[in-house]
Specification:
By secondary structure, this protein is mainly α. It is built from 16 helices and two strands. Helix 2 (25-35) crosses helix 6 (100-118) and helix 7 (123-150) runs antiparallel to helix 8.
């Protein structure tokens, strides 16, 4: 068995060696650009770790795993366009470097390439893998739609938010683990349990992103903190701040949310101070630990040896204990 770090190296080597020979090359340049910007490569790593629970040589499923990474980056490309974002991982977004039309067209081609890569599995597994991936892709679009509609609502509940991040973030991690299990001939029951591990892990990971956007170290987090606060994004943090605020605190929160003009640093500091006073950081940390513990408990029920589970457990621990 190999470690997640070795798997990550194999994933990055594979991505670096991909060739794009179709014409016009200008259509594929943004795709190469997006995939060259780095990232944690969580989805392909999880796919290979899921496979390794039952079989050796996880590199045998590198290409479908790369398909998941291609799909993930396609969603980021289009998300950046919808959000009118200027930067991604410290570099210009595709619609800034080229234009919106190129972002749409290259993104569409990237989606097709993702399917092409995911489909590179044994014929007897193809239908099962494509069914899983297709449902996942539909769910991620549904999650994005919920996320966008939440922007115009001030009554989003915690349950609605958790379901949105399950769809937008968690299901692709779950898909990755289950795809690895399917390709390793895992029993259906245990492939399904591994899917739940990914779902629960994804919820913990996204909630940690919410937390780090407020309390993280920008050098570690990879971007300036406070972005969710300045854009009034309906996160677990903001939803629960409203639910738990007293009248005075609610009035201050509403002041900052409805302010048309504001100093960014002042707004981030003020809302963070309110989160501190209301106890939102501790609440979010408890929820992160709850989902992480659920993921570990569910993995305990997966029928694979403790030795084979160890690389996945170590990777999960690294995911959930990023420096803050």
């Amino acid at each position: 068995m190999i470690t997640s770090h070795d798997i990550l190296q194999k994933v990055n080597d594979c991505l670096s060696n991909l060739t794009y020979t179709r014409k016009p090359s200008s259509l594929y340049e943004p795709i190469q650009y997006v995939l060259s910007l780095g990232g944690k490569r969580i989805r392909p790593v999880l796919a290979l770790l899921g496979y390794q629970l039952w079989k050796d040589h996880p590199e045998d499923i590198l290409m479908p795993a790369i398909g998941l990474e291609t799909y993930h980056n396609y969603t980021l490309l289009h998300d950046d366009l919808m959000d009118n974002a200027d930067m991604r991982r410290g570099h210009e977004t595709v619609h800034r470097r080229w234009d919106a039309n190129k972002a749409i067209l290259s993104g569409d081609s990237m989606l097709v390439l993702a399917y092409q890569r995911v489909a590179q599995v044994p014929a007897e597994k193809l239908q099962q893998v494509l069914d899983l991936f297709t449902v996942t892709a539909l769910e991620i679009g549904e999650g994005q739609e919920y996320d966008m509609t939440f922007e115009t609502r001030n009554d989003v509940t915690e349950a609605e938010y958790i379901e949105m991040i399950r769809l937008k973030t968690s299901v692709l991690l779950a898909c990755a683990l289950k795809m690895g299990a399917i390709l390793a001939d895992a029993p259906q029951l245990h492939a399904d349990r591994l899917y739940k591990v990914g779902e629960q892990l994804g919820l913990a990971f996204q909630l940690q992103d919410d937390l780090l956007d407020v309390y993280g170290d920008p050098k570690v987090f990879g971007k300036a903190i406070g972005g969710d606060i300045t854009s009034n994004k309906k996160t677990y943090m903001l939803i629960n701040a409203f639910n738990r605020a007293n009248a005075e605190q609610r009035a201050e929160l509403e002041h900052w949310i409805y302010a048309k003009t504001f100093d960014r640093q002042e707004k981030v500091a003020a809302v963070t101070h309110l989160y501190d006073a209301i106890g939102i950081r501790e609440l979010c940390e408890q929820k992160i630990n709850y989902y992480f513990d659920l993921a570990r408990h569910t993995l305990d029920q997966v029928d694979a040896s403790a030795e084979r589970k160890e690389p996945l457990l170590q990777y999960m621990d690294e995911m959930l204990h990023r420096d803050k």
